[in-house]
Amino acid sequence: MMDSQNIPAAQATTLNFKYVPRPGLLKIALINFFLTLITLTIYRFWAKTNTRKHVWSCIHINGEPLEYTGTGGELFKGFLVVFGLIILPFSLLQKGLQIYLGDQHPAVIGLFFLFILFTYVMFGFALYKQRKYQLSRTLWRGIRGTMVGSAMTYSLTYFGSLLARYFSFGWATPAMNTTLQEQMIGDMRFGDAAFKFKGRAGPLYPTYALCWFLTLIVFIAAVSFASYEAATWFGTELSNAYDSIFNRPDNTEPPRRTLEIIGFVTLIIIAALLTFLVIVPMLWAIYTAKEIRTFANYTRFDGAQFHLNATAPSMIWLAISNLLLFIFTLGIARPYVVQRSVRYVFDRLSLEGAIDIDRIQQSQAALPKRGEGLADAFELGAW
Amino acid sequence: MATAATYFDGKSARDRNVTVVAAGNSILFSGPDVPPTSWSLSGLHPVDAPSPGQPYRLTHDNQPGARLIIRDDQFVKSLIASSPHLKGGYSKRDIGSVVGWTLGGLTTVAVLGYLCLTLLPDRVAKILPNDWRNKVGKEMEQSVVEGARACTTLAGEAALGALIGNLAQGAPDMPPISVHIYDLNVLNAFAVPGGNIIVTRKLIEAADSPEEVAGVLAHEIGHVYHLHPEAQLVRLTGIDVLTSVFTGTKGGNMTTNMAFLATLLKYSREAEKEADAYALETMQKASIDPMGLKTFFEKVLKLEGGTSKDEGAFKALGNIFATHPGTEERIKDITPLPAGQKAIPALSPVQWQALKSMCEK
Lengths: 383, 361
Hints:
The structure holds two protein chains of two kinds. Chain A is an alpha+beta fold. Chain A is 63% helix and 11% strand. In chain A, a hairpin with a 2-residue loop joins strand 8 and strand 9 (193-197). In chain A, helix 2 runs antiparallel to helix 3 (72-101), helix 4 (106-136) crosses helix 5 (151-167) and helix 5 (151-167) runs antiparallel to helix 6 (173-186). Chain A starts with 12 loop residues before the first strand and ends in a 6-residue tail after the last helix. The model of chain A is unreliable at 1-9 (pLDDT under 50). By secondary structure, chain B is an alpha+beta fold. The radius of gyration of chain B is 35 Å and the shape is rod-shaped. The longest helix of chain B is centred in the N-terminal third of the chain and has 36 residues, at 92-127. In chain B, the strands form two sheets. Chain B has a seven-stranded antiparallel β-sheet with strand order 4-3-2-1-7-6-5, with helices on one face. Chain B has a three-stranded mixed β-sheet with strand order 8-10-9. Classes of the chains: A alpha+beta, B alpha+beta.
């Protein structure tokens, strides 16, 4: 035995991340699915918790697994509070007004838009609180994480970023995302040790411009293709067909041939749109991957720098395979989808530089008592 | 038996080496900078069930933040052998509480569902003020006919009035109704709140005798008599509230929507049966040949190829042609007037022509 008086000076160590799968996820998947079904989805809070407990415990940092300490009851309480304070009063008010004033009354429509606005303004709040809850329920070496900033400040920035993106045709995205990430990461703590985020949006712009213009090209190509196809197949017959649809006398059946043409053209347009809907998200994976890599490099913990080797093809594959897995198992495989997404990150995450782990003390921040009510209402993430 | 382990005190991230010894009802551990500590077995909890490749982690009621990490499989095995609750996973109590909460929850759902779907709609429908019923009915009528032309001719209105009057002979307590014919190219008739009945041009065209129109009207008047449109409206509102209770969102999700849609259809099937019965009784008492209703049903079945192409909302509002298992059965239940009871024509040939030509321009 060593002399207890002679404790060696704490030394900085490097950290390595590893996802170590273990059996038991199938059982969780089946139990979650069955109970969620027969409880008309109320079990979802416990289902999420079961999955998180398992997946968290597979994330090993220097051989020491993470621990998820949240409970289904906390998520359920979060739901009840949001439901009781926001959703229910709003629903009752809306129903009441609808019944007294009718569907089309300005007050009813106004209230509806007010709710939409509320959703947009509070979206960032929900994201921030969700992160705060999850960090506060995540232990590593007995130490938990937290968020130390204001969720409302983040939410207003988030709302501002939505407006900025909208009015700049998307071009504000890299700058706004960088600002948002800086706020989010800057507020993150593990115990009393802070995460830091520092970097400019500039390096993201070439990739953003590439994706933006490629999207434009794909859009123009899809529209030209659809109209070219329609024109070559039917020529002038087409414009006549549309003409006869829009200018026909009241309530007469249009001729069969007209309906056929319109139907076929509609099919071509739908095909073009679908192509667009598949190709465009794939294109944007190039930007998303670049943003993830860049943001990881901008992130430091106790002086060490993160790297996350995200690539567009691997992200596309992850998204498509997760979607197919989810659809073809009718959602039973949801825990596997979570595992695959988490695993994607931790298989590719590394930290460059050494950290003096022993120095880190437990966070003194108060623990949130409930979690994620608003995130549940906004259907943020299936985890 | 002793083994080496790692201890985290929950105050700092520092790992401390300790030696753990199993000692009867507790485990003891101590290390170079950890004073001797005793944790009772009964207060111990595993963080996870033991799993290969995974360190076994323990915590204790007395120090909820502290963690003891044991990597010696043999030691863990013997520890679990002495106190099975350290195996983790689902205990009998966990399973019991899940079952209990689930049953309790399902009971609550059943009670709420019964209130919102069965008990309340009919009662609420009866106490709704008339001007509100009329207002909602008018709004619904507008949204269903979507600006189609209302067919009105003096002679036609008179014929329609006569037809309703003849039917009323068989139903002295017939509720006040108002029948509107619209120039719509779909074959349909339905009742909306406030006693308003909408009939389409195509239906009038498809009818070959006044008895067929009388049958359709009697069926719709049955809906009005039983306040089906009003009750269905209350039911829809109840479903809306229930759905948002479950999902916490407006609009619900797939599971809840499917459950509620099935419930809704059940009620509209029952409503159809009640309206059929009302129609049959009224026509028999008014001595109008009920076979009109039957031939019209058969015609529609044939026209529509046995399936209704109409929107779900129409069905919910008491669409006369809502097709579901049992349409043939409904037809079968319609019997002719008893022998000896002489049928009187629902309309005279002149009146019938006036009704038929209402939508002509």
